[in-house]
Amino acid sequence: MIILLTGKEVCFIEAALLLEADWQQRLHEVWTCIIPEQEAITRIMNRNSLSEEEARKRLSSQANNQYRVDKSNVVLCTLWDYEVTQKQVEKAWLLLKERLAAG
């Protein structure tokens, strides 16, 4: 998705493996969503009908939260209700617009 904002184009790329592929240096900013490990395991189990062991194995094959935080410019947490996540995104978007206007 590309949005024109303050005379600049903003392009959004949803790429689950962006950090694992080490592509972050090709972008101006990386925004990441994280959740605590146990919540991730629970969601994987529920979404994919996997055992806890299978979910842990799947999660262990991915970058952990600390790695994602270290490689990202903006970090959002999706642990809470949708409305809380929406507020986080809206605030991050507002701050991005301010950075673009200033720069």
Biggest sheet: strands, sense, closure?
2 strands, antiparallel
Determine the fraction of residues in helical runs and give it as a percent range.
40-55%
Overall pLDDT score:
91
Computed structural class: alpha+beta
Shape: elongated
Q: How many DSSP-defined strands?
A: 4
What is the beta-strand fraction?
Answer: 15-25%
Head-to-tail CA distance between termini = 22 Å
Number of helices: 4
The whole-angstrom Rg is 16 Å
**Low-pLDDT segments:** none
The run of helices and strands is: EEEHHHEH
Order of the strands making up the biggest sheet: 1-2
In short:
This protein is α+β, with helices and mostly antiparallel strands.
Structural overview:
This protein has 103 residues and is an alpha+beta fold. It is 48% helix and 16% strand. It has four helices and four strands; from the N terminus they run βββαααβα. The protein has helices spanning 37-48, 52-60, 65-71, 82-102, and strands at residues 2-5, 8-11, 31-34, 74-77. Strands 1-2 form a two-stranded antiparallel sheet. Helix 1 (37-48) packs across helix 2 (52-60). The longest helix has 21 residues, at 82-102. The protein is elongated, with a radius of gyration of 16 Å. The protein starts with a strand and ends with a helix.
